[in-house]
Amino acid sequence: VLLEPFVHQVGGHMSMMKYDEHTVCKPLVSQELSFYESQPLAMRQFTPQYKGIVSVHLKKDSLGNLTLMASPSLQTESCARLSNAIGDSSVTLWHKCKWATGTGSEHALVKWSHTQLAKTFKERPDLQYRTDPLLEDANGNQPERNSSNPWGLHCHRQHLNRMSSKHNENKLHQFLLLENVVSKYNYPCILDLKMGTRQHGDDASEEKKARHIKKCEQSTSASLGVRICGMQVYQADTGHFLCKDKYYGRKLSPEGFRQTLRQFLCNGNHLRTDLLEPIILRLKALLSVIRKQSSYRFYSSSLLIIYEGREHKENAAPLDNHLHFQKTNCTAVHGAHHSRVDVRMIDFAHTTFKGSKCNHTAYDGPDHGYIFGLENLIKILQNISE
Predict the structure, then answer these.
(1) Are residues 176 and 221 in the same domain?
(2) Number of domains in the chain
(3) How many other CB atoms are there within 10 angstroms of residue 209's CB atom?
């Protein structure tokens, strides 16, 4: 199995890896595993499907490229343990550990190197990314177009270097296998929102706690209960993705947040008003579920809003070449049908709830910081709609 960097990672700091078309994996954190094992049924439509655990270790090839190796024999045990622990038919454990037996070899090779990255993108030469067009280098040149979201690659390189400097090659790392929630989209437009008015977990050191509190105070986390952590949006006029990272999101004022949310719904030609109603309806459904969850605190978790960037022909607006298009001033075009959208909660490493194995503090009632963020998000989208 070739484990590749996940090209659509727009936020976070841990590297997400693509296991196969429908599955991604990330380093296992016991608190996150605890959440996936026992999450309420009502929340499952808003989280990625949990598929099990895979064991991985680092290896360097003769050229010095870092590779990741998986040992199937070790995964079978963890699968059996998990099957017993969960016993819930709605959690499908990665096709009953098919990956552990189907290869016929003793070790499945899970590998990534810089040279192989080029091969990955040959399949999709149409995926072109860029950062903000206003950013230029010292010579006034536009940044080069990349065939992957620059943030995902940045995380990937950092993570592999961290793993190789801290651990020897035989150290086994456990990774969570999760549903790839953007696999059904050809041109996935993704907005990563850090939700809630508080970002530090109960286990944070005083220094980390102070750092997170400061980040919240200096961003829209305090005023709106939500801040932008990353974004990629397909631009139909240029044929590539526009990307923003968490540093951009941290600097935004509430008005800047509103404009960026609008920009997320702009495809370079017009505002995708057809997306507003389905997104708002899905956010309202999530809000109703979160209000009913007593004791849950989703500290530092993110919310993904996803939609298909390339429109159906009948839904696309005619191009007006005489109109100088301003990114923040999209002209509205009303689509005839609801576009496919998705809203998913991710990143539960600091989520706490009663009965959690890693629970440090017991809370009562719903997560009001998260609810505050969701309500403001819905309000801003309704304003854009109006």
Answers:
(1) no
(2) 2
(3) 16
247-276 tens-digit pLDDT? 999 999 999 999 999 999 999 999 999 999
- Residue identified by tokens 């004022």 is 253
Q: Residues 158-177: pLDDT tens digits? A: 888 888 888 877 788 898 99
Helix (H, G, I), strand (E, B) or coil at 11: coil
User: What is the pTM for the complete model shown?
Assistant: 0.80
* Strand partners for 50: 178
Q: Which of 180, 197, 224 is the last residue of a domain?
A: 180
Residue-wise pLDDT tens digits, 203-223: 889 999 999 999 999 999 999
Q: Is the dihedral of CA 348, 351, 354, 357 positive or negative?
A: positive
Domain that holds residue 166: 1-82+150-180
Strands 17-20 and 23-27: antiparallel
* Same domain flag for 170 and 201: no
Question: DSSP of 281-343, one letter per residue?
Answer: HHHHHHHHHHHT-SS-EETT-EEEEEEESSPPGGGSPPP-TTSPPPTTSPPEE--SSPPPEEE
